[in-house]
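Checklist before submission:
- one chain only
- standard amino acids only
- sequence pasted in full

Submission:
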Amino acid sequence: MAQIIEPRVLKGFRDALPKAESERRRLFNAVEAVFISFGFAPIDTPCLEYAEILFGKGGGETEKQVYRFNDHGGRDVALRFDLTVPFARFMAEHLDELALPFKRYHIAKVWRGENTQRGRYREFYQCDFDSVGSDCPMADFEILSLMLASLRVLGIGGFKIRLSHRGLFNRFLEAQALSSASVEVLRLVDKLAKIGAEEVEKQLSELVGSEKAKKVLDFIHPEVDYLATLDKMTALAGSSAGDTERLRALHALMEESGTSAFFVLDPSITRGLDYYTGLVFETFLDDLPGIGSVCSGGRYDDLASLYTKQKIPGVGASIGMDRLLAALETLSDSGSQSASASVLVLRDPEIESALPFKTAQSLREEGIACEVYTDKKKAGQQFAYAEKKGIGLALMAAAQGSFSLKTIATRESRDFPSLAEAVDAIRAILAKKPL
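Returned file contents:
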């Protein structure tokens, strides 16, 4: 007998059971409907890219996490670690075919060989949406508005979108004669939520000295409200400029649209990737701040310059769907399934007949999702199957044209002389189900 191979998956990778995958697809469908309502179009790019494409400006720490190898043709390739860098390559390659500003969304898997933790895996989905070809407050605000609409439709409860401006932070660092250490300073500040202010100050002091470390910590500390914080940032940077005016314009748009309560100006938001040049933002859940940002992004006006001489300004965001799912999941049996159908159409185990399939087709034509039980099992076993899958109703068709509808949880049955009457009853029952 051949040796049995132990079934297992790599660390940081997961199988998706029906319950988890159904919930993920529900979230995907919800946000996709929002993207389409904003006029954003879907695209796709390859999982594998030439390594030089991804590493052009990936950021030091991220580069260490990329899955990179030589393929069978000896080419240096890597799995994409996000959807933004491939999108920059996509824009440079297809620029002549697209109308600007080009607004896209892309929901797909990415890979990073990083340490695993709750809501963070080595293979995970990103959900990106970007607008490229325009650099103005309205373009930035559209992305912020789309973030807000997407998070609202997902029903995740309280959250705050925290934003800042990399250009303003860089002007502050220049005023402190810290430009040469800007990359290291920004990356340390980006770790504030993970390692705490005390550790950030310690590492900053080792990098730039204790006096300047305190000035950096003062700069990144938010004041009582958006405008007070902006006034302090402007003063510490030396003067008003395009970056501060952009933040003021965004605040005015938030106030006028009635959405300002969802946004916080937070100078500690820097984003770890090097390609961000202007506005940056991250989103934290009020009840689960420790899970990290569930939606982040920013403006990356120079990213496409790696692949084309034409300047293509862009701004975009990414929703971390797996992290959101980890935040939303409730205590349940991880092995249980989630129903993809509302009705199980039963079969007579003694008869091979197409009648269950004809019944199911009629239900689907009425917009009712249903599944046919195909095995020759007794009624009790068919009911048990429905229970395990979370299907609440079972329908049996009789040869003479009558129908029996059973509520699985109570085993109560009702008989109907026609399918139309059974359909009405099914709709009435489903309409009472909690969302």
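Reviewer check: Confidence is low (pLDDT under 50) at residues 330-336.
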